[in-house]
Design goal:
This protein has 184 residues and is an alpha+beta fold. 13% of the residues lie in helices and 29% in strands.
Length: 184
């Protein structure tokens, strides 16, 4: 399997040792294309991967495998990280091969939580660092406080340029300007 080094899919996996099936990254066929999927029950990340015919799909790979693959990739200077999925997750390194056992068990049915395509949508694009700064400015240092994004949508063309209203658990008020969409 090849996976782009920009993806750190293991970041979405659970850190809770009591939830072993959510602690790994599931590699599966999703509607005809291979994906790596991770969730902790609150977030879900799914990224494309490229599999070789010898790779096994439907396996649960330990998160440290992806970190180790990126390290090996830096030394080998490959454009993508490579992990062989055949009996175990195997990584070729300059000093030899390292392998990790799969996590045994059934990964949750993540497809059931993916929303069906909506009839009408609005896409917003914003700088995550600006959202983080605004969150802090509105008192969000307390990790228990959630951030609420309000996106106005009346169907007009100008919706894509409207600022996003931001509050931290109902207190304070901020605006986050959208980034320009590519090509606009």
């Amino acid at each position: 399997m090849k996976i782009s080094n920009r993806f750190k899919i293991e970041e979405a996996a659970s850190k809770d040792p009591r939830r072993p099936m959510l602690h790994g990254v599931h590699v599966a066929d999703v509607n005809g294309s291979a994906k790596a999927v991770a969730t902790d029950g609150r977030i879900l990340a799914m990224v494309p991967v490229e599999v070789d015919p010898s790779d096994t799909l439907g396996v649960n790979v330990r998160p440290e495998t992806f970190k180790e693959a990126r390290k090996a990739n830096k030394k080998m200077k490959w454009p993508d990280s490579r992990i062989e999925l055949n009996g175990r997750a195997k990584i070729q390194k300059q000093e030899g091969e390292v392998s990790f056992d799969y996590i045994e068990g059934n990964f949750p049915n993540f497809l059931q939580v993916i929303p069906k395509p909506a009839e009408k949508t609005i896409k917003v694009r914003f700088d995550v660092e600006n959202l983080k700064r605004l969150w802090k400015a509105l008192g969000g240092e307390d990790k228990e406080l959630g951030v609420t994004l309000t996106i106005a949508h009346d169907g007009s063309v100008t919706d894509q340029n409207r600022p996003i209203e931001v509050s931290v658990d109902g207190e304070g008020y901020g605006l986050l300007m959208q980034m320009r969409q590519p090509g606009s």
